[in-house]
Design a protein that fits this description.
This protein has about 525 residues and is α/β, with parallel strands linked by helices. Among the domains are: about 110 residues, Immunoglobulin-like (Sandwich); about 110 residues, Transcription Regulator spoIIAA, CATH 3.30.750. The protein contains twelve helices and 15 strands. The strands form three sheets. The protein has an eight-stranded parallel beta barrel with strand order 1-2-3-4-5-6-7-8. It has a four-stranded antiparallel beta sheet with strand order 12-11-14-15. Helix 7 crosses helix 8 and helix 10 packs parallel to helix 12. The protein is globular, with a radius of gyration of 24 Å. The N terminus is likely disordered.
Amino acid sequence: MTLRQLGALLTVIAVLGLGSTAHATARQFHTVLEDDELSLFSPPALPQFMETLRWLGVDELRISAEWKLEAPSPYAAKPPIGADLGDPRTYDGSSAMRGLDRAVRAAARAGLGVIVDPAFSAPLWATSNRRPRKITGDPWFNTNIDVRELAQWEGMLAERYSGHYTPTGASSPLPRVSTFTLWNEPNQVPFLEPQWRDGIPVSADWYRAMLRVAYPAIERASPGTTVLIGNTSSTGGSAAVGNTGVPPLEFIRRLACVDAALQPITTGSCADFHTLPGDGWAQHPYERDAPPWVPSGPADPDGAEMGDLPALQALLNRLVAMHRFAPGAATIWLTEQGYESNGQLSDMPWTETQQADLNAVSEYLAWRDPQVASFSQFLLRDSLTSQTLALRARTGDPQAFLSGTWTTGLERENGAPKPALAMFRSPVVARILAPEAPLASWLTSSPAGAPSGLIEVWGRVRPATTPTPVRIEVQDGGSDTFRTAASVLTDQNGIFDSDIAIAAGAPAEVRFQWSMAGAMQTSPTFTPISFPVSGS
């Protein structure tokens, strides 16, 4: 059978609904979004924010809980005398806690789940930091955080959001939060110190000790809660550099008390090791300068960016098989991800159109791993871009940068949509399977794409939660119109995956259409490209 005959056959199969890999019994593939500015610090915008999340098909809103902001006497050297720090009532007077309560209630009203993410800074009294002579700005205290104090606070959060607690002055209990993480990016210096001591990644030792007390504290307070461990960033440093971060795969090995050859370590803090609990591994697989299929490589062999998902998955599976981690830890939750666009800050690496396509390919690659439970988006709206631009204009420094500036959002800071907004709601990816001519990636040459005889088309209909009919359309090179290439049925996540034939000899554009509430919806277009995938 020739390639063209095979392509034609696959097209017929797809039209009959047999070419899609969507199945009614597919796993739930969660959609997670985080934007603390809109969740916590912009109360008037909260209703519209929630409506946008519903329109985007978000399943869980990830919200930061900053211990220092919520705790009593956060700048004191010692905990407040007489305060029961494990009692939710102790925190009812905190404006930060009321902001978190407000966001959790708003998400519940919108039908969204919540992931509470303890993050950023402990109160001074729970660390070995010295009190600043003058409190200015928002100092963070993260040196030698007391794991038992932290576990008590996280248990308090779980009790507060167990579905049974009614705050002082409220008329109804707070909604239940079913998913928690334990500490944001513990392998990075801004969030935890020290990272290294005498060549050993001691941040992983700290995390292991914290996990041992925090996990049971959360489960006692709210049985059945999903506790995601890890929450690691995509990269790190080395002991030779000094107190930089720890690469995530090295952090994982040390957490599991194994060496680089996965042989058990039985000395020091690993002397009494036993299986670590966990219901999933949370990961932030950002890639700043590379597309999502490119692994970190020799320069960062223990990185865990999007292109390193196979290596991360293999390591977690091996450690579960060795009984270093509980079985649930092999399930990966991507809880932060995004590509920074250069529409306003020209030194960012990607155009806004490229950002949209890279986000879509990232989600496709995450979906390909059956043990990945979620895909995430960090920020609905860019942050602090106008302030950074003002700083550059004021200083004359084109590289000046205000901490907290991010351009990973689906919208610009002023709310103007980027191409990524529509692509996030209905991502579409077309991957060349059988080219008939040499191909050049749009990342290194023309974005017009290349001819192909056979392509895989993957897409997702949001906010679909039931199998949905989809029509895949192709605009062949030189044509002004789209033709129907296949009709398929999504799974309950709104996801479909089909192989179809397209005309050879000219570039093509691919999109899909579906009906919702009686109106026809159309995805963005995607030009077929060639990139490697794990297992192919």
